[in-house]
Every structure is written in structure tokens, then in C-alpha cells.
Predict the structure.
Amino acid sequence: MTPSTTVHSPPRLYGRSGELAILETLSARLRQGDGGALVLTGLPGIGRTALLDRAAAAHRERGTGPVLSATAAPVEQRLPYSGLHALLCSAPGPLPLPPDRVLREGIGPAALLVLLRELGAQRPLLVCVDDAHAWDADSRAALGFAARRLGAGSRVAVVIGAGDETSFAGLPALRLGPLDDDAAAALLDRLTDTTGAADRVDPVVRGELLRAAAGNPRLLTGLTGRLSPDQLAGRTELPYPLPGGEDVLDAHAARLDGLPPDTRTLLLLAAAAQEHEPQGAGADAALLLRAATSAGLGPAALDLALLTPAGTAGALQRAGNRVHFSHPLLRRAVLHRASPHHRRAVHALLATLLTTAPGSAALGRVLRAGGATTPAGAPVLPALVQRACAAAGPDAGLADALEAAAVAPRPHAERAAALARAAMLSTDEVLRAARFAAAAEHTRLAGDAGRARALLARVGGRTPHGGAHHVRGLLALRDGPAADAREALLTAAGLLAPHDPRRTLDALMGAAEAAWAMGDALAYLDAMTRIPVPVPDRALAQYRDGMCAMLRGRIEEGHALLRLCLDSAARAHEPAALLRGGVAALVLGDVDAACRAGARALAAVRATGPDALLPQALEHLAYAELRAGRHARARAHALEGLHAARRTGQPNTASHLHAVLALTASVEDGTAACAGHADAALAGAGPHGLAQAATLATWALARADLAAGRCGEAAARLDPLVRPGPRRGHFAARMLAVPCFVEASVLAGRVERGGGAGPVTEAVAEFAVWTTCTTDPQAPAQLARCHALLAPPAEAAGRYEEALAHHDRAGGDFERARTQLLYGAWLRRRRRTREARGPLRDALVAFERCGARAWAGRASGELRAAGEAVDGPAAAGGADPLAVLTPQQQRIARCVAEGATNREVALRLSVSTRTVDHHLRNVFAALGVRSRTELARVLDR
């Protein structure tokens, strides 16, 4: 029986693949006999030590050669050559120069270089030094001198970890940044998996841990390790602030300990002055100067600290009239290092200065009135926040004043911070819960969904709170299952109805929006009919009654009411009213009005907020432009909306925007780009029940198939969407896909002949009814095109001409070009090639004009088949291998190379299988290939 050997793999380093690759390159060069040096820089806890350990372990495991390694001891920083003594003591064997002698007598830089080269003469030597910035100056200078002179043939590599590269100028440096979101999340999974809690970590707790760690792996490890299983699972409220990682904050603060006392005071003032500012806004430089002067700092110290980065060791950076910390953890470290008494004194000073600022005399009146009223003085809220930070314990009067001052026109982020402070100062549990819920609402509106959920977790669940359910439902509407959002918002409406009509209305509108996203018309009607009658907002009442009338089949009444709502929206300035106007316009089919309303809504959101509404404004505008055929504009707005949705934590909105981008790609970019966006849309739409996004994404995939000539696949995708059944598409979007379904079915040969009813004829009949209910200018032309596709030969030409006449009145290059393409292809199949060239040529030009590259390729193929030469893009890297083939042979060759059978090629090109067989034999002979596989290889070159 042989003994088993356990191999321990090193722990995975998350988010450091690039850095590991650079270290591996250095190691590979060392094994080949060429040395070098690398300085790893970064803030404490960022991962320098882990990378150095990995490099040393890899060198030892390979048996490449010896390793010298040392970590600086800050207490020895004033002891000359203590750093090199520690490094040489790590040698695996005797050295030509004893380490104790180095400590007693020192060693010159040149002598160290000679010593390192001697040690690497037999086998490659790796030198690893961590925290080298904390070494004594003599050791740093000698090591830097030697490292700069290592290169080809030296057989010595030096890897140095340091807080910055100033001590080792001239050496290659690699600065480590914070972990990205995915890497930090993967590390958190590993940390919690060691306790078996990975699957039980509450999403809110997870978000708070990742937010507090700011991408610092050691801090994330410390924070996670201090939480109990109940806290990780969300069963117990999290402590505030989160404990753990004090060693990381101490290490950050230690970097600043050597600064003069006045500079450290200035840093504390700058850290405290950001408490009343939105996250990332920095501190007001004028306030900071006044506070520093009041604290007794001299002008020379201020100039040095604020005008030169070296004055604060790079901790502060000035941008215009704002002062920022170079990293958020530095600010937290400064506050952490200061004593509670010192912190409260600084906040009290700032509160006094803000109270005495111009226009702040109203602050005293607010406090004397107990917070009953809020004057318009701008400095009121910042001064109150600073007073709250200076408070030693609960203060009901100050909490009331904060709540009273946290109103418009202050930004939502500032109001949220003030309300959270008010909640922490409150002793009454009901008031505390209400203030945390209000803070969560404003945080959501400010675009910080993760922080809003964390504030909701502090509301508590002993008694139902309508405000909390309201915010929870609105958050779920953007990043959770739509059905859950609807139920939460209906619950919130019931709880809020007796005392808060505004939020009740908001909750019911949110529940209706969730039902719309789900594709549940009855649930939408249920939510809309719960809106009280009469509604104070007349335009909203018209919108409610008009939408209900449309869904109940009272089309004329619905049109009249929605037209009134749209007219009212033309005079509105509030983003929500403008967005409703855009929806009303789309339901009416007035796509131009929808574009105008969407553009005005976007402008209003950009001007006045809230930030949380920006992704929706961009989504509505992009969809309206898509419906209007303005694909390039739709793509631009959808891409911007996608970035905004990711930034504000709204994956459901991102799914809808991916669906819009898939539809634009089905026109402009073809199958690959369309599939990428469609897959992203469906990945979010499936788990969250977003029927509208799923319908649009599926339609996009089918339209891309049509552009590529894969008509059978397109028909198979669309068949369940347009027919009755459990897989039926969204009630407001499925009719839009019917023209594509009819085209795909006819070209794929899936239409019933002999006049009998079937899925295609039933879909056309339903589309005809829908056309009478909409003012969409393209609908009559699309209906005529559907009739042309299904018409007998004697009537088809007239139907196509009818469709083109409708297009002339409606405008829109893309849809007209599609009709011309189908008309020209029909003429060519009827052997009327001369007549076919006109509409095919017009279709090609129109597709090129509107950027529909995929469709232009299909039109080019039809035009070549009609006998007209068409210029195409040259093959990359040389002549086109298909140049020796006729246009029809080229089309067949491309289809076969994609994997299509002869029958499928025949259906795509509207020819017989015998014709395909004949042309394919000639293709093989002309290209010198013997199989379909060889043909595919030739086309891939």
C-alpha cells in the first residue's frame, strides 16, 4: 500500500489575473537567466503581500532557486540597515557576508549588488520585500540602487511591495487598484463558504459588506469575519458602522502619522466636512479654509496642504472649489483614528460655521420652532447634519429639525443622509422606522438601490410599515420579480391609503407598471381601477380611464381619453407626467408624439432629477425612436440608458434596454450582436417575469434570422408569440411581430394552401383588427404587405403596390425597403427579372441609407440573382474566394457553409432543391472542394 500525498494548491487571488501574468513573465525571464525588478504599489490591504507570497511560493515549488524575503518592521525604521539585515537573515544557507556584520557596519549599494549577483550565480535568485516603504532609509537606498542595475544575465529578480513608488523611482511599478465588483463578490463567496453560509448571506448584508470594503480584500475579510451567522443571514440587524478591518484603517492612518499636527487637523476637518455632502462630492474648500482658520491653522500650513499634494502626503486633492480624499478609505481612516471627543468637537465647529454663514440665520428659528417649519436658507440642512454628527446621544429635538429641513429643493442624496441621521437620533421606534423608510425612499430616488435596501433593513419588521413596503416594492420593480413588486406595492397602497394619498397613488401606479411588465392585462386593470376617483391630477385621471378603456375594448373612448392625456402632457414639465404622455402616445400609435414626449421627459430628468428615473426616461425614448424607425438614435439612447441602469442598480430596466438594443442590432448589425443583447434581455426577463422584454428580444432574434435568410427559424421563434397559448407574447407588443411572422412563414413554406384557416391567416386577421385600433402610420402598409405575401399571383402585385402607397404616406426607410425587397423577390421568382431590379435596387439603397447592413446584404443577393452587378466588400486579406462564382452560386455557397441543408437553402432562396443540387455541384468544381466542410473552410479564410 503506497502512502498518499496531499497537494495543497495556493488560495485563489481574485481579480488579480493581470498582475499574476506580469509576475509570471518576470519569473519566466528569471528562469532563462535574465533578471529584473518590479515594484508593487497600493494602499494597505489591497493585496501586495498576497502577490509577493504567491511569487515566492511559485519560485520555491518549481525548484528554480533560493528566495530571500522580508517584511518591514516599522519600529525598526530608525535603525540603519535593519531592513537588509532581516532580508539576509532569510537566506537558506551561509552568506559571503554575515547579516550581523551588515547590521554593525552597514553595506554599500555597490556591495549589495555584488552580493546579490553572487547569490544568483549558481541558481536564479528571487528577492521579495514587503512594505519596503517602512524600511530604514539606508536599506531602501541600497536595495533601490541594486534593483535598478539588474537585467539581462543577472539571474536575480527583485519584487518590492510598497505604499508608493517614490522610494524606488526609476523601477518598473505596478499599482494595484481595488477589486472590481465581480472579483469582490467572488471573494465574499469564498469567505462565507468557509462557514457554510455562502448560500444564506442576505443580499442586503452582501451589498453592505461589498460597499464598506470598497474593493479592499483584507478589509472585506475583516468585516465578514466579525459578523455572526444571524447577521450574515439578515435575521439580526447589522451594527452601524460595521465592525472589523480596524487593522486596515489603522494602516491607512499610519501613513499620515508623520505629518505635522496642523496638517492632521486639516485632514480631520476635511473628513468631517464631507458628512453633509453627497457621496463623492468632496468638501467645500471655502468652508474648509474657514474651519482651518478657526482651528488656529496658519496660512502657510494651509497653502502647503491645499495647494501641493505633497503637503498631505497625497491624501487630499483639490479640484476647483472642492477638496477630495485620494481614496475613500483614507477619509474613513482619518475619522477612525480620531478620538470620539475630537471628532465631536470638529463637527461642532463646522456646525457653528455653517450656522453663521450668510443666509443661515434661519437655522436658529428652525431649532426654536422644534423643526415645525423649514425656511429656505441653504446652509440649514448641512449645519443640522453637522450638529447631529456632534451629538453624544439621542436628541429628539434635533431629529425633528433634521426631518423638517430635509425637503425640496435639497437633492435627494442630502435629504436621505439627513433623514438617516434623524432616525439614529430618535428614541421613538415608530418615528425611527418612518425616518429610515423615508431615508430609503430618497436614497432610491438618488439612484443608490443598494444603500436604500440597507436603510430598509433598519426599519424593523415588528409592525407593518407602508412606507417601507412602498420603497421595497419600487426597488423590486427595478431589480426583482415583477410579481413580487406588484404584491408589495398593492400592500403598501393598502397601508398608506388612510393617511398618505400621494404615496398611495404612487404605489398603485407602480403596481400597474409591474403588471404591464409581466404582460398581465387583468392585473394591470386591477391596479388602475384601485386608483381613487376622482384623481386630483386631471391628466392622470384621463390616463387611467383611457388605458382601462383600451384594455376593455372600448377603443374610441380610450383614444379620446388618451388624446386628452397626451394634450395635457404637452403642457406638463414633470418627468412622470411626460413619461405617461409618451406611453399614451405609443398606445395610440402616434410614434412621433411619443418621441417628443420622451425627449422632453429626458430633458426634465436631466435638469431636475431624480437620478433613479434616468434609465426609464432613456428606455421610453429609445423604444419610441425604435417604433419610429430611428434605429441609430434608439441605439444611442438605449446604450446610455444601459449604463445608467447598471450604475443605479436597475437590472430589470437593463433587460428592457437590452431588448431594444437587440431590435436595433437586428436591423443594423446582424445575428451576432443581436443574439448578445437578446440573450442578456432573456437572462433577466425569465427569472423576473418580464414578458415585454422577453417578447421584444424574441422578436429581435427572429428579425435577425429573417435578415440572414433563416426564415424557418424565424417562423418557429414567432409562432408561439403571435398565437394563443401559454407562450403567447406580451399583449402590447405581440402584434408588432406579426408582419415578421407572416413573412417568415410564407418564405419558409409554412402557409396553408387552399384557403383554409391556419395560424398565419388567423394572425393576419387579428393584425387587421389591431390596425383599425391604432394610428401607427406603418400598420396599414404592413397589413397590405401581409396580404400581398398571402395573395394569389394575380393579386399580389396590386397588394404590393398598395403597401408601397401606404409607405409613401407614412414615411420610414426601413419598412418601405422591406416591402420593396419582398416585392422585387416576388417579381424575380415570377421570372420578371427586369421589373424586379427597380424595387430591389431601391430597397438596397434605402437599407444602406438607414444603416441596415444585414438587410442590405439580403437585398444585394436578390439583386445579383436578378442579374445586376452589385459592389460588395472585398474579402479580408486578399481576393474574394467566391469571385469565380455566379451571384446565385455565391448565395447557395454561403448558405451551405452556414450548415443549411439543400432543402433549407431552397426554401431560403425560393428555388427548387434540384436547382440547389445543380449549382452546388458547380460550386464544388469551381472551388476545387469535395465536401461541405471544405467549402466552409474556404469561406472562413
Summary: Residues 156 and 689 are 60 Å apart (CA to CA). The longest helix spans residues 501-518. Strands lie at 36-41, 67-71, 125-130, 156-162, 173-175, 283-284, 316-319, 322-325.
